Amino acid sequence: MQTTASDYSIYRQLVAQLMSDEEQLPSLPMLTLEIRRALAMPEVSMSRLVALIGQDPALGALLMKYACSALLRSRVSPRTLQDVLRVLGLQQVDRVVMMHSVKSLFALHSAGHKRLFMAAWRRLTLQGSICAFLARNVGHIPADHAALASLLSEVGALAVLSAFKGGDLVPSPVRYQELCRAYGASLGVILLKKWAVDEEYVQIVRAVGDWSRTGARQIELIDLVNLARYHALADGEEAAELPPLVRLTAYAKLVAPHDALGGGGRLSLVEAHWDDIHAIAAALR
């Protein structure tokens, strides 16, 4: 049943309990860990990787879609999993494996929870796709690295739903967003530390959404993530809370022609390439 505004304290209590008990949070699947360990080996064989990835047909399909996506623009479309691994390379495969794992980790207890999750996932994959697109065009950062950083930057928003074990307690979209704003970053840090991912991703979680954050003079990974987050939010209910794009520290680091603004006060680079961005998002879902 849908709860009311008066039940917000119950939500807060459940999420606070989740944060105090790390065991309630999902662990990376064993297969993901095996694939990542194999990828980290100095001389892993192609047949070994193919055999491992072949245990998860959905992962193989995602890798194929990603290798054929507008993001890579390969001259020859890969036909087999071996082709995909050669096109992507081991680092990209590792990052796509992580992206795939994130979506499959969270148990959903009702249709209401699933609707909240899928809406959040659509936004996060759009944000990751914008980030990857910007990385390819304005940064010196691999696009898949940017996409994963963007996705992991808000993994805490997905983790919030882990607090609701019963199917009868479903927050409204507005309440869910309030919980994400209050607890998402803290949950994200706890979760990424549990997964033992690179510290760089943990620091991204801490800094995402800080529009005035200072740092190096050139574009950094966090700048791409913040620009992507801004554009992903700009068409939603949180648009009214956003500052003008030109006030963002990340925007100030852009140079012509990438700093040009479109009619909506957003980057022309993004507005002119929505089809490409949505095609990348489709490859991540």
From TrEMBL:
Gene3D superfamilies the record matches: Hypothetical protein af1432
Residue ranges constituting the HDOD domain according to the UniProt record: 25-211
Source organism of the structure: Pseudomonas lalucatii
Domain of life, source organism: Bacteria
Residues that span the membrane, as ranges: none
UniProt xrefs under PROSITE patterns: HDOD
Protein name as it appears in the record: HDOD domain-containing protein
PANTHER family per record: CYCLIC DI-GMP PHOSPHODIESTERASE CDGJ, PTHR33525
SUPFAM superfamilies to which the protein is assigned, alphabetical: HD-domain/PDEase-like
